[in-house]
């Protein structure tokens, strides 16, 4: 698990991802003061009970959903926000936040 101050940074960033957009573990890591993509993934797996964070908007660098137990629910939540997936299960790059 990341240090508490990194967790706070990660959760603050995740909370800012707009509906209908996604970002990657790596992009979030680059916005922190020292987290790695793996740490961001760990933070997403260990979200506090009752949180309201849009965890479903965080995806892998391949723009596919990571293979985890919540992937089906994540896919549903993203589709409900209007996120489309291509034939290979990727999210279109123009939906990646923040814009570069």
UniProtKB/TrEMBL annotation:
Example of a GO MF term: catalytic activity
GO biological process, one term: DNA repair
Record-linked Gene3D superfamilies: Winged helix-like DNA-binding domain superfamily/Winged helix DNA-binding domain (1.10.10.10)
InterPro entries: ATL_DNA_repair (IPR052520), MethylDNA_cys_MeTrfase_DNA-bd (IPR014048), MethylDNA_cys_MeTrfase_DNAb (IPR036217), WH-like_DNA-bd_sf (IPR036388)
SUPFAM superfamilies: Methylated DNA-protein cysteine methyltransferase, C-terminal domain (SSF46767)
Origin superkingdom: Bacteria
UniProtKB keywords: DNA damage
Domain Methylated-DNA-[protein]-cysteine S-methyltransferase DNA binding: 8-83
UniProt cross-references to PANTHER family, sorted A to Z: 6-O-METHYLGUANINE DNA METHYLTRANSFERASE (PTHR42942), ALKYLTRANSFERASE-LIKE PROTEIN 1 (PTHR42942:SF1)
Name assigned to this protein: O(6)-alkylguanine repair protein YbaZ
Organism: Vreelandella aquamarina
